[in-house]
Design a protein that fits this description.
Structural class: mainly beta
Largest sheet: 5 strands, mixed
Shape: flat
Helix content: under 10%
Number of strands: 16
Length: 196
């Protein structure tokens, strides 16, 4: 048994998925073998918040009956959150109890993407421009990954200082970068990371 995907930074105000795997040598333990499963999320000095973990294939739970019990949690404030999960049940005539713990950080992002972007040819390469809202003046690193139709990808970045407000950042993909894709397009933006 164990928590999946802990240790990441998540922005305040978003819903995140929390997942707990219950399994043994035979694979995932299904809900018919579970007597109880409970979880809590707690920020230091604050009351614990109970979470409901389900393995029903609905919402953020990818597949019913795979032994991965999932919950959605709305991140209310910046800080470090501790997660605790406990499960008990009977499998193959044997009673079991398992628990796991983890943590994640919630941060106030220095910038958020506004959903707009443009691309333009530039000296045999490609410039990708993203609109963003800067919430605190900072040096911002924008990483963009382009993926070609053949599945090859390449990442480029741009680092610059920005003041608070709406702005844009341009990331340049020189021709030498694009040639590594072994395809002349089309390309898709497959990942964007903006950090301070």
């Amino acid at each position: 048994a164990g928590l999946l995907g802990t240790g990441n930074d998540y922005p305040v105000g978003v819903s995140i998925s929390l997942a707990f795997y219950v399994g043994d040598k035979q694979g995932g333990v299904t809900s018919d073998s579970i007597m109880s499963i409970s979880g809590v999320v707690q920020m230091s000095g604050q009351p614990s918040i109970p979470i409901t973990l389900l393995d029903d294939g609905l919402g953020n739970d990818y597949m019913a009956g795979d032994g991965i019990y999932t919950s959605t949690f709305q991140v209310p404030a910046a800080g470090t959150y501790n997660i605790g999960v406990a499960v008990s049940g009977t499998r193959n005539g044997q009673q079991f109890m398992r628990s796991a713990a983890g943590a994640f950080n919630a941060i106030v992002p220095c910038a958020t993407l506004d959903g707009t972007f443009q691309s333009a040819a530039a000296s045999g390469g490609l410039n990708v421009t993203l609109g963003m809202n800067v919430t605190q003046a900072a040096q911002i690193d924008a990483d963009i990954t382009l993926t070609a139709v053949n599945g090859n990808s390449v990442t480029a970045d741009s680092i610059a200082n920005f003041d608070v407000g709406h702005t844009s950042v341009t990331v340049s993909f020189p021709a030498t970068f694009l040639r590594t894709l072994l395809a002349n397009g089309p390309y898709s933006v497959s990942n964007v990371i903006v950090g301070c």
